[in-house]
């Protein structure tokens, strides 16, 4: 079969294939370029990085850990992550399970609704939440920020859990219930262990989304509740603080950690 | 990324009350913090404001009239849609070779590397990715530094604070959203199809244009819709890279809401943006469905 292909395929197709490969490779280089730039600048001694780098320095990391305001922002972001991740995972897992198991008219509409925060312009989400949370007296509070983060992260959690549910053998649930187990017992002891990879991946997505969220947070933040990304935003917007170099490297390391966790649970190929 | 879930069509029985109970918390959360805010945003956009920008109890379409009669906002909406469309087209064009490389790579290790490059931007804050572009493009940034040391330029080039820089950064930030659905589309084409076309005498280019390309239009459209919607609605990247003077509607809305504190006008502008982008995305997804029916026959 393979030789038959070589006879019929015109010579030019080999050329096209290589052209495609080189073009594809260049696109991946373009995608990875900013990450390389950030590592270059995080370890460079000057405020602006040089290429090729002349020496390596950890002074921006030192400056970060010496700065109280940056540490306070890290604390706010960490608090949010610890609150948002379990709540988003809980809401996402239950919603994904119900959407996968229920049959009713309008389910597709409901599904689109659950995923809609992904593509609703973030200024719209920001203003709407700002207005409502101000009315509830929660504007600028950590609770308000947590609500915003859960809203933005929920679609990711629902998606990853749905991926696990779709590949799960449902006869196991049927077997459990035909042996007399209640739906709740079956969910707890049969379904949950089987979809654990999706739940863990969903939690990772929720944590990463919360930690990096800026567009909605900017609307809900107050001087006492500045998150890391919001602080980075205001610093880039107003001045140029090279400490941002080191902060960026920290974010990249967390992204790599998240990548490893996702690959070990549902696998990168199914993550999106 | 798919904006849909892999849901089964098999009917179920017995545990449906339990499933409804599980559905409740998520729905209550979304009702309280997505639906109610949405409705209140519509009401807010209809409130009048006085000279001090205090919200008055009276209602009118004054903010919509201002949005649609002021040359500035009309131009901002036009520029926003144009930039979003251009970003979507560029993303799909660049996504094609990238998706093809992903699908045709046989080595598992290399494929993992490509997936890491594709997924990692989605796990990195948009501020960080935008910051990287500032480091690259600034007056004393990397590109100017390298060009100057190579002796190619004397004075630094002004690469930042213009729309071209915004579009370059947008394309880079949003490219994975275009590559992933396209790769799914390409991966689903049975290997026998292009082979059959070529064994019947069609050249590589003819096979691509008449067999492969039509089958991947749905994947290209899914990517284009997501990129368009995201590019039309975000303000962080254009604000940091293009500067606060770029005539883009999301930047205008951000400033009206947080700096000028005219919330009703910001609400009217953001609802206008939402409706217009949703309408365009809706038309695109209708075209996509029609095409799918034509190509796959269902």
Structure description:
The complex is a heterodimer of chains A (272) and B (298). By secondary structure, chain A is mainly α. Chain A folds into two domains: 41 residues; 204 residues, MetI-like fold. Chain A is 74% helix and 0% strand. Chain A is built from 13 helices and no strands. Chain A starts with a helix and ends in an 8-residue tail after the last helix. The N terminus of chain A is likely disordered. Chain B is an all-alpha fold and 298 residues long. Chain B has a single domain, classed as MetI-like fold (Orthogonal Bundle), CATH 1.10.3720.10. Helix content of chain B is 73%, strand content 3%. A two-stranded antiparallel sheet of chain B has the order 1-2. In chain B, a hairpin with a 5-residue loop joins strand 1 and strand 2. In chain B, helix 3 crosses helix 7, helix 5 runs parallel beside helix 10 and helix 7 crosses helix 10. Classes of the chains: A mainly alpha (272), B mainly alpha (298). Chains A and B meet through helix 1, helix 2, helix 4, helix 5 and helix 6 of A and helix 1, helix 3, helix 4, helix 5 and helix 6 of B.
What labels describe this entry?
heterodimer, A: mainly alpha, MetI-like fold, 2 domains, 13 helices, globular, B: 298 residues, mainly alpha, 3% strand
Strand percent estimate of chain A: under 5%
Instruction: From the alpha carbons, calculate the radius of gyration of chain A and give it in angstroms.
Output: 23 Å
- What distance separates the N and C termini of chain A? 35 Å
- Could you give a short account of the major beta sheet of chain A? none
Average residue pLDDT of chain A: 87
Helix count of chain B equals 12
Number of strands of chain A: 0
The name of the CATH superfamily of chain B reads MetI-like
Output the CATH class name of chain B. Mainly Alpha
Strand tally of chain B: 2
**Architecture per CATH nomenclature, i.e. the level-2 architecture of the largest domain in chain A:** Orthogonal Bundle
- Proportion of helical residues of chain A: over 70%
Shape of chain B: globular
| Helix/sheet category of chain B | mainly alpha
């Amino acid at each position: 079969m393979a030789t038959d292909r070589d006879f019929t395929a015109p010579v030019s197709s080999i050329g096209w294939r290589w052209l495609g490969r080189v073009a594809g490779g260049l696109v991946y280089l373009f995608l990875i370029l900013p990450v390389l730039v950030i590592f270059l600048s995080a370890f460079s001694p000057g405020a602006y990085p040089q290429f090729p780098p002349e020496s390596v320095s950890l002074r921006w990391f030192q400056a970060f850990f010496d700065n109280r305001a940056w540490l306070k922002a890290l604390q706010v972001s960490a608090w949010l992550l610890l609150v948002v991740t379990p709540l988003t995972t809980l809401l996402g897992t239950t919603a994904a399970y119900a959407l996968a198991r229920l049959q009713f008219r309008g389910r597709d509409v409901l599904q689109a609704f659950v995923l809609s925060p992904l593509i609703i312009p973030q200024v719209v989400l920001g203003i709407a939440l700002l207005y409502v949370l101000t009315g509830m007296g929660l504007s600028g509070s950590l609770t308000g920020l947590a609500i915003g983060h859960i809203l933005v992260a929920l679609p990711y959690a629902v998606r990853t859990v749905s991926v696990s549910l779709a590949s799960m053998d449902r006869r196991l649930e049927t077997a459990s219930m035909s042996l007399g187990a209640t739906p709740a017992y079956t969910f707890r002891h049969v379904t949950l262990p089987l979809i654990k990879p999706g739940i863990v991946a969903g939690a990772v997505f929720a944590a990463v989304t919360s930690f990096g969220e800026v567009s909605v947070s900017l609307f809900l933040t107050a001087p006492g509740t500045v998150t890391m990304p919001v602080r980075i935003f205001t610093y880039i917007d107003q001045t140029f603080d090279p400490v941002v170099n080191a902060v960026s490297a920290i974010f990249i390391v967390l992204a790599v950690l998240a990548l490893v966790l996702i690959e070990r649970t549902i696998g990168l190929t199914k993550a999106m | 990324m798919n904006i849909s879930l892999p849901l089964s069509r098999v009917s179920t029985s017995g545990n449906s009350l339990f499933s409804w109970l599980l559905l409740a918390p998520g729905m209550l959360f979304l009702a309280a913090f997505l639906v109610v805010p949405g409705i209140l945003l519509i009401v807010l956009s209809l409130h009048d404001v006085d000279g001090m920008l205090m919200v008055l109890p009276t209602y009118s379409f004054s903010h919509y009239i201002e949005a649609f009669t002021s040359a500035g906002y009309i131009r901002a909406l036009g520029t926003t849609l144009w930039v979003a469309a251009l970003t979507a087209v560029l993303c799909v064009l660049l996504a094609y070779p990238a998706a093809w490389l992903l699908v045709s790579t046989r080595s598992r290790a290399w494929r993992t590397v490509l997936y890491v490059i594709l997924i990692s931007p989605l796990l990195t804050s948009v501020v960080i990715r935008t910051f990287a572009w500032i480091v690259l493009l600034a007056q004393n940034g990397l590109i100017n530094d390298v060009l100057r040391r190579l002796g190619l330029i004397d004075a630094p080039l002004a690469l930042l604070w213009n729309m071209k820089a915004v579009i370059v950064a947008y394309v880079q930030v949003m490219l994975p959203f275009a590559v992933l659905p396209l790769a799914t589309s390409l991966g689903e084409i049975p290997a026998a199809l292009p082979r059959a076309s070529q064994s019947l005498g069609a050249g590589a280019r003819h096979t691509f244009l008449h067999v492969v390309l039509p089958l991947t239009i749905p994947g290209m459209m899914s990517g284009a819709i997501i990129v368009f919607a995201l590019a039309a609605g975000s303000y962080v990247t254009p604000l940091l890279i293009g500067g606060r003077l770029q005539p883009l509607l999301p930047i205008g809305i951000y400033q009206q809401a947080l700096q000028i504190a005219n919330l009703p006008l910001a609400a009217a502008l953001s609802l206008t943006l939402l409706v217009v982008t949703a309408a365009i995305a809706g038309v695109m997804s209708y075209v996509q469905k029609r095409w799918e029916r034509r190509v796959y026959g269902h």
